[in-house]
Amino acid sequence: TEEHAFPVNLNGAWGTGKTFFVYNWKLLVEEQGHIGIKIDAWESDYLDDPLTIIIAEVIDQLKGRGDDEQFHEQEKKVAHVLVQLKSALPAIAKSLIGIFLGKDTANDIGSMVEAITKSGVELQKYEPDLNLGDLGLEATRAHIRHKRFIKDFKDEVGKLVDVAQPEERNKKIFVFIDELDRCRPTYAIEMLETVKHLFDIPNVVFVFSTDTKQLQHSIKAVYGQDFDSHEYLSRFFEQRLTLPEPDFFEFLSSEKAFERIDFRSS
């Protein structure tokens, strides 16, 4: 965790109390001096933009810590590199479509070049008969630029975290992402991929609270029933924790109002 983020899977079936557990886990880490941030993935899946949702929640829940003016300046830097990063993504995708499908099957080569240009890549003015070699070159340039944007984004978010806890450099930030298994399959996958590739930031712990069995079904719905969704999820999590099925009889017996009743009697 010193050099990288530490993603954890908190697994529990419906009714095992995952949300309650996460709420109290967050309180515990805050009592220990760490920062706790909770994101309800299901509330935001209709927006279809996990990157913006995560960074918006992080910024909102970090505000008020440290120097306000310094935090605001760093917030603007994060926003600036976020715009650059997001603008580059469609450019790379559209370029690769042109390469693999060929220019005759691409819907609109002109819009492809325009998208690449908007991402900030310097282009010469191509002739109307743009060839695949040109597209490949620009896809390569866009990819290199995108890698730089990712590094800049991680660096700026890391600095934002430092500004938010100037006297507590050895403390951690716990980001609890709840209800992931209730999201649309494509959104759940995008959320996982976003955290893995863009939020690999030192001293940040991500806790994904899920019914992992249901999440695996969601992944299969996207990639096919023969897809090894368990192995796929293993790429994301450094550690897996499982909440046991609750013993409801023991729970009821622990309440004073029911302590004299033997629920197990036939």
Question: What's the layout of helices and strands?
Answer:
Blueprint: E1 6-11, H1 18-31, E2 35-40, H2 41-44, H3 50-62, H4 68-101, H5 109-118, H6 132-164, E3 173-178, H7 185-198, E4 204-210, H8 212-223, H9 229-234, E5 239-242, H10 248-254
Parallel strand pairs: 1-4, 1-5, 2-3, 3-4
Helix pairs in contact: 4-5, 4-6, 7-8
Explain how this protein is built.
The protein is an alpha/beta fold and 266 residues long. The model is unreliable at 91-130 (pLDDT under 50). The protein has helices at 18-31, 41-44, 50-62, 68-101, 109-118, 132-164, 185-198, 212-223, 229-234, 248-254, and strands at 6-11, 35-40, 173-178, 204-210, 239-242. It starts with 5 loop residues before the first strand and ends in a 12-residue tail after the last helix. It has a 5-stranded parallel beta sheet, sandwiched between helices. It is globular. It has 10 helices and 5 strands, in the order E-H-E-H-H-H-H-H-E-H-E-H-H-E-H.
Produce a short descriptive summary.
This protein is of the alpha/beta class and 266 residues long. The chain has helices at 18-31, 41-44, 50-62, 68-101, 109-118, 132-164, 185-198, 212-223, 229-234, 248-254, and strands spanning 6-11, 35-40, 173-178, 204-210, 239-242. The chain has a five-stranded parallel β-sheet with strand order 2-3-4-1-5, with helices on both faces.
Helix amount, in percent? 55-70%
Order of helices and strands: EHEHHHHHEHEHHEH
Number of strands: 5
Q: Sheet bearing the most strands, described?
A: 5 strands, parallel
Report strand order across the widest sheet: 2-3-4-1-5
From the alpha carbons, calculate the radius of gyration and give it in angstroms.
Answer: 23 Å
Q: What structural category characterises the helix and strand content?
A: alpha/beta
Shape: globular
Residue-averaged pLDDT, rounded? Answer: 75
Which residues sit in consecutive blocks of at least 5 with pLDDT less than 50? 91-130
How many distinct helices? 10
Q: Tell me the strand percentage band.
A: 5-15%
Q: Report how far the terminal alpha carbons are from each other.
A: 51 Å
